[in-house]
Design brief:
- Helices cover 64% and strands 0% of the residues.
- By secondary structure, it is an all-alpha fold.
- It has one domain.
- The chain is elongated.
Length: 56
């Protein structure tokens, strides 16, 4: 299986979801606080999917 780097939009969405999750965890973004773990997991899954399936 050939791995490819994620495209810019998928990378950007992953960074935004991850940053929102981390900011929620540390209290900088109160609306994301209850979902902080889920947001970070979504960010990792976006990067994983973009890396594995971008070449298909």
């Amino acid at each position: 299986m050939k791995l490819t780097p994620p495209s810019f939009p998928s990378w950007l969405f992953a960074v935004l979801f991850g940053a929102a999750g981390i900011a929620g965890k540390y209290g900088f973004f109160a609306a994301a606080a209850p979902h902080a773990f889920v947001l970070v997991m979504i960010a990792f899954l976006i990067l994983l999917a973009a890396t594995l399936f971008a070449g298909l």
